[in-house]
Amino acid sequence: MWAIAVPLIVFLIIVGPVWVVFHYITVWKRMKAAQRAQSPAQTEHEKAIVSDLTKRAKRLESRVETLERLLDAEVVEWRNRI
Fold first, then answer.
1. CA separation, residue 37 to residues 14, 24, 30, 44 (Å)
2. Which of 28, 52, 66, 75 has its Cα between 20 and 30 A from that of 37?
């Protein structure tokens, strides 16, 4: 019993956490390398997409607020029905 338990405990306490930490360090380095490999044009394109999506989200938020104001004025108890 102890022949299996002791190496398992050592693995779980020492080797396991070190293994996990080094794994995520490797993943982080790969992500940074991939990020550096992107072309500036691709990065600018992604920034433009994010900017466009932000504008759309603000417009949609404005529409929802307008609809809520209209519903509050016309149907007083609409929030309680949901």
1. 35, 20, 11, 14
2. 52
> What is the rounded distance in angstroms from the CA atom of residue 46 to the CA atom of residue 57?
16
**CA atoms of 52 and 44, how far apart (whole Å):** 12
Count of residues in the chain: 82
Q: Among 21, 67, 13, 61, which residue's Cα sits nearest to residue 75?
A: 67
The pTM for the full model equals 0.51
- pLDDT tens track for 49-81: 999 999 999 999 999 999 999 999 998 888 888
Residue 74 DSSP SS3: helix
The token pair that represents 65 in the structure block: 């607020």
> What is the per-residue pLDDT across 14-39, written as a single tens digit (0 to 9) for each?
999 999 999 999 999 999 998 888 77
DSSP string, 3-46: HHHHHHHHIIIIIHHHHHHHHHHHHHHHHHHHHHHS-HHHHHHH
